[in-house]
Amino acid sequence: MDKYYKINTPAVISEPMEDDLVVINLDNGCYYCLNTTAALLWNQLEKGCSINRAARQTAQIYGNEEAMVLADCASFIERLIKEQLIRVAEGEPTINGISFNQGQDKPYQMPNFVKYSDMQEMLLLDPIHEVSEAGWPHHENK
Question: How far apart are CA 22 and CA 34, in angstroms?
Fold first, then answer.
């Protein structure tokens, strides 16, 4: 049986940056830089691909053995779940016409990310909820 995953929205957002993808977890203030292969996998999951289909497509794109890519993807998925970036989806999502380029410019890399916590305090700031009873912004009467 195929497994499907969902991005933990609205707490998790992503933005492409050159060949990589930056993912931010607004709940814990950490951000992650996903390599090219991980970004491809993220986009496949985001569009509703099962892990098996995503691995199959990734293996075709890079010309790698499907079993090896599936093992790499499964390990990567476990890390994403541990970081609370994705969760198991209920049921089978609808897949809307996914198209992928054949033969990437770069060689296959094991899907991976680097986690950064250097901006946690800034990302966790929430000025809208850190207000007095007078509201925000509060203009003092002079």
Answer: 6
Cα within 13 Å of Cα(14), Cβ side: 22
> Alpha carbon of 132 to those of 33, 60, 125, 128, 137: distances in Å?
36, 56, 15, 10, 9
Q: How far apart are CA 5 and CA 79, in angstroms?
A: 13
- The residue ranges of DSSP E strands in the chain, in sequence order, are 5-7, 12-17, 20-25, 30-34, 86-88, 113-116
Coil, strand or helix at 131:
coil
Compute the CA torsion angle 5, 6, 12, 15 (nearest 10 deg): 90
pLDDT in tens, 13-32: 999 988 789 999 988 889 99
Tell the residue number behind the tokens 């998925």, with chain if given. 77
- Stretch 28-53: mean pLDDT, rounded? 92
79 touches 6 (CB < 8 A): no
For 97: left if phi > 0, alpha if psi spans -120 to 50, otherwise beta; the answer is left
